[in-house]
């Protein structure tokens, strides 16, 4: 299971990187076609969709890599038992928040699909298509936060911390 979850987070991070390249391609094409006097409708919208997809799909990988901003000043000042309890409490709150985000992201995509909601830009893209990346990204992020919460409740230290101790 551990190998599967780590592969899932890595795959989501890789897909986020692909969408970042998509942002680059869309922006460069937009600039180049403007210089040539051409207009390709929707390039700005596709750059935006790709940027949103990259951001949401990168959440889990970034979290599991220990790259999300955390205030560890209080945790490090507390005794180890109190620090662990506060950390678990914070992760439980994060589980509630990410579950909510996941639920409403999926609901938004389903609602957009059922109402045939389309973009108001030149592209007229059905909005559920770019919203899928947001729903999938938040689902994987919720899984990552839940995974970390369970690990911490079992007394397993943060993966990033064990890697840092290994390299010191």
From TrEMBL:
Short name of any one Pfam family annotated for the protein: DctQ
Gene Ontology MF terms in the entry: transmembrane transporter activity
GO biological process, one term: C4-dicarboxylate transport
GO cellular component: plasma membrane
Ranges that cross the membrane: 7-33, 45-63, 84-106, 126-146
Record's keyword terms, sorted: Cell inner membrane, Cell membrane, Membrane, Transmembrane, Transmembrane helix, Transport
Membrane topology: Multi-pass membrane protein
Domain Tripartite ATP-independent periplasmic transporters DctQ component: 24-154
Compartments where located: Cell inner membrane
Annotated function: Part of the tripartite ATP-independent periplasmic (TRAP) transport system.
Quaternary structure annotation from Swiss-Prot or TrEMBL: The complex comprises the extracytoplasmic solute receptor protein and the two transmembrane proteins.
Family: Belongs to the TRAP transporter small permease family.
Record-given protein name: TRAP transporter small permease protein
Organism of origin: Pollutimonas bauzanensis
Lineage of source species: Bacteria, Pseudomonadati, Pseudomonadota, Betaproteobacteria, Burkholderiales
